Amino acid sequence: MEIRAFQAEEIFDEHQIKKEQLLLVQDAYFAGYISPEEAAMRQIPVERFGGAKILPGLFDSHIHGAVGADTMDASAASLDAIGQYLLSLGTTSWMPTTVTAELAAIEAAVAAVAAYVPGADKARVYGCFVEGPYLTAEHGGAHPPAYMRDLSQSELERLLKAGTVTALAVAPEKEGAQEFIHYAVERGIHISLAHTSASYEQAVAAIYSGADAVVHTFCGMTPMHHRSPNLVGAALVCDEVYAELIADGIHVQKPVMEVLRRCKPKGKLILVSDAISATGLKDGQYKLGLEAVTVKDGIPRTGTGSLAGSTTSLLDEVRRVILELGEDPLHAVHMASLNPSRRFGLEAEIGSIRAGKRADFIIVDKQYRLREVWKDGKRVNGGGSCK
Length: 387
Description:
Strand content: 15-25%
Largest sheet: 6 strands, mixed
Strand order of the largest sheet: 3-2-7-22-23-24
């Protein structure tokens, strides 16, 4: 049994920011707190990080790829490349995300994720988010309309046989949406409302049927109008539904992010990257699934000019929400850690610093710039003290 203590100026505990106590880690798990005096008396080794902050490891529940690799590659090598890159940025857990394609290609990707076992130097994986093919062409973005399909319970069963489908995107105006959503939820699938022309009434009906999240809110959906609130309006006023946000400053302007931040309960806003294979690489030509994408100044777009995911990271988004929007730091961190873990029923294992949870955490400086990454109580990236 190995026990160590960690000292920092601020420790972002699940419930509050602690400033005087030391964080205890026993083997691979958080083990509570201890005073400096007791740590000295018990001769517990202390890792000291001066003026730094200790945050929980981040969880990206909507990400397609990075460093030239894509979930749709359906290979352990690609998942390894993405997972290693994410861990180097402080994202200790992620949910590989597919795009619209032939059903067989999606099945292969889901199967690859189900069979994948990440190494110690890779971010841990929790299921698969199937984004498409049950979307609407009018707001398809980088999803090719040729492969969009009607809702099908038999196809869903095929996907479930292929592997673990944790979340599935649905356009709620699709015929039979309420029945399909209820069917999926009964099978343990989280339904995300996405890439849609749905009216407010259709969106609310989908939420009442069991849908629990809105994908990259404001993007890929009919804009809100004061006489036609649509899915955006439902996301803002339905407190029970989670709202994803890509807070890269490109997908959604700051005043609109502020509207969402003020409308949603603190526990219902989830930061996601929606990052693609170009993430971590130079500007140039890439693909998102089958769609050709051009990245210029770090912004991916399709040939028609639609945004095609992002090249951002969760920690960059957390920093922006805190330093530019003025969000409470603990709430902002939870948007990228605890909130997604709660949505998927993982809050007993990951998502925050609390005794009994996995000791996944990151060390950042006062400007939320990454210094070190720890997974299962072991340093996997960085080294040295933060001043």
